[in-house]
């Protein structure tokens, strides 16, 4: 009895141990869960998320504003500690891509003091030193992120668009939620950028329909805009904007673009902007729109002009440079406006049809009839003014395609006297200052059109069929019904028949019949010859 009592405690202890082992072995998931919770608690206990640290200012287009420690001009990022205690940034991350938090890690011992600033040079130079991030910023726009040392927790970030040269972008005041372009102050409190608004800078003259008046350096005739500086000091235009939309700045002046005191500068509005050139990324609308000159913030309007439909090859500008009065001018791109106004009344309205003006006679196959100024025998077109007033043809158009009125423009100061004729040589010439068109006529038949200055209103036209060599096609009598003429009269009246001249249709028909008859005889003779050869 005594012996059994002595063994009971040992048995009980064994049973307790066995039961405990069975219970614990049946709860593996509970143990792992408790362990994971402990790990997370430990991780969060080690994770230091500072309060009051901000990405405060940066520069993504540091051309020549802030020199780095090595004398160059790298991008940079400034952090600001708005708190009352120092913050240890060791092990935290800075990145230019929020999807890639660990782009660059702060080295051990990186401290930012209370109410202090820290500048990181972002120049993609990983081995330059401890304050150099191994990425650069993109001046066209991207993002910057500050992450905790777990590579996941975002402390602060900013997403930005295109940046101006030598202008920083930052919080104003420091640590606030408001961002603006600033005067660069790396390592110091931010200062609001003072927008440069020169009161001596003007949109002075422009041309929205430059067909053959002002040529650029590449031999083209694009739209253009002229600026004028009326002040006594040169103005740096770098970073300013030009646009044909007063709500949307479109094209930015390249760095180091200056306009001298009392000087002019021409920007070609040809929609072919190239970095560093004065070719804007937009063109002007001759039907009417606006031009705006903006400060470098892209919002502040320095000068603007809203205009209506424009005349081809005449500019629109200030009557005297920088004045408030605008008028149509003889173009003076890059030069002072001379007050050489174009009186629209004397030129007729854009779409006006001059009374009594006709295409009067043409020759599309001039072989030996009349020699041109250079001794060749080009095609020609004759106009007739049946009115009793001189007609100014300046800026009007001739074409051999009614769907393309702008084929050739009459030079300035081209007139046709009352009851007179004007001969234009259709010889495919490239001289815009003479009466030689940029097209030739097609003897197989086509059309000739005379258009007003708006290049839309048709003044007169004629459609002709296949032409015979040295036979003209003209109105008989002048300004009336079209007819063939065996004896052409270029430059004088179709009624002024020379002795022996004939113009009857039946003669033309007879000649055509003879030509066809000879062709038929030739074919028949060829076939007879072929049969004999067999």
Top-tier CATH class of the largest domain:
Mainly Beta
Structural class: alpha+beta
Number of discrete helical segments? 4
Shape: elongated
Number of strands: 36
Find the CATH superfamily of the largest domain.
Lamin Tail domain
Strand order of the largest sheet: 8-7-2-1-11-12-13
How is the main sheet built?
7 strands, mixed
Let me know the average pLDDT.
84
Strand content: 25-35%
Q: How many domain regions? A: 5
In the CATH hierarchy, what is the architecture of the largest domain at level 2? Answer: Sandwich
Which fold name is given in CATH as the topology of the largest domain? Immunoglobulin-like
Q: First CA to last CA: what distance?
A: 151 Å
What Rg, in angstroms, do the CA atoms define? 42 Å
Uncertain ranges: 1-8, 21-45, 498-506
User: Helicity range of the residues?
Assistant: 10-25%
Notes on the structure:
The protein has helices at 2-25, 28-46, 344-347, 505-533, and strands at 53-59, 75-81, 87-88, 93-95, 104-105, 111-112, 116-122, 132-133, 142-147, 154-160, 168-171, 179-183, 191-192, 201-207, 223-229, 235-236, 241-243, 251-252, 258-259, 264-269, 279-280, 289-294, 301-307, 315-318, 326-329, 357-363, 379-385, 391-392, 397-399, 408-409, 415-416, 420-426, 446-451, 458-464, 472-475, 482-485. β9 (142-147) and β10 form a beta hairpin. The termini are far apart. Residues 1-8, 21-45 and 498-506 have low confidence and may be disordered. It contains 4 helices and 36 strands. The chain is an alpha+beta fold and 534 residues long. 33% of the residues are buried. Helices cover 14% and strands 30% of the residues.
């Amino acid at each position: 009895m005594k012996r059994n009592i002595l063994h009971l405690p040992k048995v009980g202890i064994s049973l307790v141990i066995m039961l405990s082992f069975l219970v614990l072995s049946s709860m593996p998931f509970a143990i792992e869960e408790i362990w994971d919770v402990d790990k997370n608690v430990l991780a969060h206990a080690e994770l230091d998320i500072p309060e009051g640290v901000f990405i405060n200012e940066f520069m993504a287009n540091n051309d020549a504003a802030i020199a780095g420690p090595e004398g160059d001009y790298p991008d940079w990022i400034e952090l600001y500690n708005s708190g009352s205690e120092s913050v240890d940034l060791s092990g935290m991350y800075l990145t230019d891509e929020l999807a890639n938090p660990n782009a660059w890690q702060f080295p051990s011992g990186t401290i930012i003091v209370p109410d202090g600033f820290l500048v990181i040079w972002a120049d993609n130079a990983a081995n330059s030193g401890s304050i150099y991030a191994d990425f650069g910023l993109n001046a066209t726009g991207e993002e910057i992120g500050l992450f905790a040392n777990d590579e996941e927790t975002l402390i602060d970030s900013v997403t930005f668009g295109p940046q101006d040269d030598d202008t920083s972008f930052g919080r104003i005041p420091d640590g606030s939620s408001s961002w603006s372009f600033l005067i660069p102050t790396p390592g110091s409190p931010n200062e609001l950028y003072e927008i440069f608004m020169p009161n001596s800078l003007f949109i002075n003259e422009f041309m929205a329909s430059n067909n053959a008046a002002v040529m650029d350096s590449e031999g083209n005739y694009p739209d253009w805009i002229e600026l004028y500086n009326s002040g006594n000091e040169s103005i740096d235009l770098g970073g300013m904007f030009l646009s044909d939309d007063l709500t949307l700045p479109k094209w930015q002046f390249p760095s180091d673009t200056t306009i001298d005191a009392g000087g002019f500068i021409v920007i070609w509005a040809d929609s072919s902007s190239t970095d560093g050139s004065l070719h804007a990324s937009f063109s002007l609308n001759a039907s009417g729109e606006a031009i705006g000159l903006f400060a470098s913030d892209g919002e502040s309007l320095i000068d603007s002009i809203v205009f209506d439909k424009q005349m081809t090859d005449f500019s629109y500008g200030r009557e005297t440079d920088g004045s408030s009065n605008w008028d149509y001018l003889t173009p003076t791109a890059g030069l002072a406006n001379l007050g050489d106004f174009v009186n629209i009344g004397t030129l007729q309205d854009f779409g006006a049809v001059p009374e009594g003006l006709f295409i009067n006679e043409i020759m599309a196959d001039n072989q030996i009839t009349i020699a041109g100024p250079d001794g060749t025998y080009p095609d020609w077109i004759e106009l007739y003014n049946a009115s009793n007033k001189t007609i100014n043809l300046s800026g009007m158009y001739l074409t051999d395609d009614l769907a393309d009125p702008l084929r050739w423009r009459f030079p300035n100061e081209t007139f046709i006297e009352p009851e007179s004729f004007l001969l234009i040589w259709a010889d495919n010439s490239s001289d815009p200052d003479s009466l030689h068109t940029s097209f030739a006529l097609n003897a197989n038949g086509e059309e000739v059109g005379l258009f007003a200055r708006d290049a839309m209103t048709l003044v007169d036209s004629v459609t002709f069929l296949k032409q015979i060599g040295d036979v003209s096609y003209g109105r008989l009598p002048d300004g009336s019904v079209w007819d063939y003429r065996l004896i052409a009269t270029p430059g004088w009246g179709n009624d002024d028949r020379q002795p022996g001249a004939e113009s009857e249709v039946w003669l033309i028909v007879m000649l055509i019949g003879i030509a066809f008859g000879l062709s038929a005889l030739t074919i028949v003779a060829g076939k007879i010859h072929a049969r004999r050869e067999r």
